[in-house]
Structure formats: C-alpha cells, structure tokens
Amino acid sequence: MVTKVQWWCSAQGLRWSWKWRPYPGSWLVVLAIASGYWSLTRRSPDTAAALRRRWFGWAGVLIVWLALDWPLGPLAAGYLASAHAVQFLGLTMIASPLLLLGLEPALAARPEPRGPWWRVLRYVTSPLVAAVV
To answer: Residue 103 above 80 pLDDT?
Structure first.
C-alpha cells in the first residue's frame, strides 16, 4: 500500500527502496505529450508509411514515460547521477527523434517565415542570444 503520494520525483533524503510510488506530475507531462502527438497525427492517412510513422511516435511517447516515471525518475532525481544521464540520453537521443519521425513530413518541416514577429523570434532563438538568456 502506498502511504504518500508525491507530486514529482525529487530528492527526499530517504534511503532508496524498490517500492513503487506514484508521481502524477510525470504522468501529466506524458499525457500532454501523448495528447499533443495524437492531435497532430489523428488525421493522417492510413497508408503503410503513415502507420509506421505512428508507431515511431508512440514509441517516443513510451520512452518519455519510461524516462520520467518510476524507477528511473526517482533514481535520477535524488540518488544516481548515472541514472540522470541515462534519463537525459533517453529523452534527447531516443525519444525526440522518434517523436519527430512519427510526424508527417509537412508537420516536421521548418515553418515558413511570416509576420513581423518572425525576425524577433529568429533573433531570440539564435545560439548566442539563447545562451545568454
């Protein structure tokens, strides 16, 4: 029986235990990613290529869930720096490309520059300005 529900997996100063604990904050993040992915791909055609792309995308959502939830989430948050590194590698090197592969090519393409704010956005997201900010 779980006695305490914690919003997010963070260091508590407690000894590690393999006892499962719920983390609703990580579930909400995964739910937001899954619902965003579903809304972007729900109108894609039912061709073989589109179905393969959907499998890639849902595999990316699964990797995000595995990286943020128990046991890797709490291990990474308060106990092991190596688990934290595995978490980052899973999110950046596996989940992100899978999520991009799961999108239609037109959605994954770079948007066309439109409006006066495009110049501001391009300046703010340049590497030097973004690093300083």
So the answer is: yes
Q: Identity (one letter) of the amino acid at 54? A: R
DSSP class of 15: P
- Whole-angstrom distance, CA of residue 13 vs CA of residue 30: 26
Instruction: Please state, in angstroms and as integers, the Cα–Cα distance from residue 32 to each residue in 3, 4, 8, 48, following that order.
Output: 27, 24, 16, 26
* pLDDT score at 96: 93
Residue with tokens 């499962």: 20
What is the secondary structure of 51-106 as a DSSP string?
HHHHHHHHHHHHHHHHHHSTTHHHHHHHT-HHHHHHHHHIIIIIIHHHHHHTS-HH
Going by the DSSP 8-state scheme, the letter that residue 44 receives in this structure is S
Q: Is-contact 60 95, C-beta < 8 A?
A: yes
- pTM listed for this prediction: 0.73
